[in-house]
Design brief:
Elements (H helix, E strand, L loop, with lengths): L2 E3 L5 E3 L7 E3 L2 H9 L6 E4 L7 H6 L1 E2 L8 H7 L3 E5 L5 H8 L4 E4 L4 H14 L3 H16 L7 E6 L5 E2 L6 H9 L1 E3 L9 E2 L1 H7 L3 E5 L7 H10 L4 E5 L1 H5 L8 H9 L4
Parallel strand pairs: 3-4, 3-6, 4-5, 6-7, 8-10, 8-12, 12-13
Antiparallel strand pairs: 1-2, 9-11
Length: 260
């Protein structure tokens, strides 16, 4: 019986390609759709907003942090996809008592490509997965960065929270031409407004998720950071690992045109 070991060291055993898949990771849900697993995916979370027809029609098993065990049991999955950061460890371990759970741990764009390859193999969609990897690599290789900017990227407000050098977002910032000023920090450090002013970044990127920054927040911060260009950016392009990475380079190229 084939077995697969995920990045957390947990092994699963599958006798055949899975026919009843639950995804607990929004970006990987979109990826499963792009692999052509239309009927095989039976459950998603309430945050799996892409593709829209799945969001409207697939069974929702709760959120990424609060899953509904009874709904999952009713679906009887033969594979569950989870993520170390996005899902709760105790909930994942509880699921492992009943079902094959493959948990990704993605901190770099390279690890995201490894996930695409491995999930493609597990689901019997290796060739579409490899084609997607080639498309992503070609898109990033064609990205032209004219000038790099010292940048902070905010994911939250009250308190302000940014991203450290050991995150997937950091890797995407680097590819997009933004030098993360908090590269020496880990995970998601909190920042006061005074600390932001002291850093005085050339660029301040306000993500559309998980906190829904809006243009009004750009205006507020521009007033207290007079030497900083503040931009509202699409958080999915910086934080969704999976097939969304195929679209990110074109978005990053467009962002370059907005830089002063």
């Amino acid at each position: 019986m084939p077995h697969y070991t995920d990045p957390t060291g947990h092994s699963i055993y599958l006798s055949a390609s899975p026919q009843r898949i639950i995804s607990l990771v929004p970006s990987q849900t979109e990826f499963l759709y792009d692999l052509g697993l239309r009927d095989e995916v039976v459950g998603i979370t309430k945050f799996c907003i892409h593709p829209d027809q799945w969001f409207r029609n697939k069974t929702r098993v709760g959120g990424t942090k609060q899953i509904r065990m009874e709904t999952i049991h009713a679906l009887q999955p033969d594979l569950i996809l989870a993520n170390k950061e996005e899902n709760v460890k105790e909930q994942v371990e509880a699921l492992q008592q009943h079902y094959p759970v493959w948990t990704s741990d993605i901190n770099t764009p390279e690890e995201a490509l490894d996930m695409i390859r491995e999930v493609g193999i597990i689901t019997g969609r290796e060739q579409p997965a490899l084609s997607l990897i080639r498309e992503i690599e070609q898109a990033f290789n064609s990205l032209i960065i004219q000038e790099r900017r010292k940048t902070c990227y905010l994911i939250w407000k009250d308190p302000y929270m940014s991203v450290g050098g050991d995150t997937f977002i950091h890797g995407m910032m680097k590819a997009a031409g933004f030098d993360n000023m908090l590269i020496d920090s880990t995970r998601y450090p909190a920042l006061t407004l005074a600390e932001l002013q002291l850093l005085a970044p050339e660029c301040l990127l306000l993500s559309s998720e998980p906190f829904p920054f809006k243009e009004k927040h750009c205006t507020e911060l521009e007033k207290v950071l007079p030497g900083t260009q503040v931009l509202l950016v699409d958080g999915e392009m910086f934080s969704w690992y999976g097939s969304r990475m195929r679209e990110a380079p074109a978005y990053f190229q467009q962002l370059q045109t907005y830089l002063k």
